[in-house]
Amino acid sequence: MLEILLCSLVTVLPDYLFRRFVQGKRFGREITLFSVWYELRYGITLCLILTVSLITTIFYFHPSTTAAASVFRTVTILPEMTGRVEETYVGISQRVKEGDPLFRMDGSRYEADIETAKKRIAEIDARLAVAKAQLAEADAQIAAASAGLQEAQEEFQARVDIQRRSPGAVAAREVDRFEARVASQQAALDAATASRDALLERIDTQLPAERATAVAAMQEAEVELGKTLIVAGTDGVVQQFTLRPGDLVNAMLRPAGVLVPDSKVDALLAGFGQIESQVIRQGMVGEVTCPALPIQIIPVVVTEVQDVIATGQVRPTDRLFDVQEFAQPGTITALLEPLYAGGLANLPQGASCIANVYTSNHERLSAGDLGTFQRIGLHLVDTVGVVHAMLLRIQALLLPVKTLVLSGH
């Protein structure tokens, strides 16, 4: 409507003035409701052509969208295990700090595992003490076997010496018997030494390894027990927390609630039509108005333009995609940040807004290498942005009326 009014001022109005004061035709006489089209046909035609051209130019070079929102992150309150709730510490909606407990799950199984691991450690420590006592006994056996071997060797050597000095003085059978005794004592010494080595291996390697395994099992059970206490990972507000003692929480199917982190709005995500993909650029200045901040115009700047469109994404599945599934056109996503610090500080998270961004050809016009018609065209493109700015301000003024009066809320 505003574009038609503006265009009629330079088309229909001059045509009417020419008919009225130059040709002398009067409204109600020659110019009637039935003859308006014929009498003002040139002005009306030019007005329609100019209006369509103006609207096309405005909406193409100065894109507008109602799909702008202050998106925010939520954290799903989800345990790492499945089990029953034993105790809760927060209400349905409550502000929490990082590390505050939210709820605790039943951990009796892990407490039993910890107790079992402790008793296993105590058993291994007892076996280690017994092995050390057996080591002392093995040392005594080695000493006894060494003494017996030495005695047998001396007896055997004495008979060998007598037999060498006086052949026949000692019976050969006697010499063989003492030789066998030496071998027997040597075998006893070797057995005692092997038994001691086995005990040392058990004390130094086997039992410590078993104890380390038991300690690791206890630590694992303690870690699992610690997971039964669910705490807040960040400062925020717990929402939709309806758990009560006895409820079953499933890590895959039933989350415990939602935690909304504390965060100030410092940017907006806006979606523009694909036809404007060649116009929207990083650094463009724009304006937004939001129902949550009525009758306020907030200047913003485009800081990032997403170079992909979400509707065309493909993920590996077990079925082929039909291109018709992508027939619904997606939007060009742009990140809008306030031009001045704190411009969006009072905007609630998740609020929707209306956004305009404006094309500026100031740098091209300053270059000085353009033709006359190019300069006129670029000046016109920049100038008609004022119309879009006026439309945004009219929308900002009408938003409270439309919401509070016309919608019936």
Name the strands of the widest sheet in spatial order.
Answer: 1-10-13-12-11-14
What does the overall shape look like?
elongated
CATH superfamily of the largest domain: Efflux pump adaptor protein, beta barrel domain
Measured as a percent range, the helix fraction is 40-55%
- pLDDT under 50 segments (min length 5)? none
* Radius of gyration over all CA atoms, rounded: 47 Å
* The level-1 CATH class of the largest domain: Mainly Beta
- Give the termini distance in whole angstroms: 27 Å
CATH fold-level topology of the largest domain: Elongation Factor Tu (Ef-tu), domain 3
Report the strand count.
14
- What is the overall number of helices? 9
Approximate strand percentage: 15-25%
For the sheet with most strands, the description reads: 6 strands, antiparallel, barrel
Structural class: alpha+beta
CATH level-two architecture of the largest domain = Beta Barrel
- SSE order: HHHHEEEEEHHEEEEEEEEEHHH
- Provide the residue-averaged pLDDT: 83
Could you say how many structural domains there are in total? 4
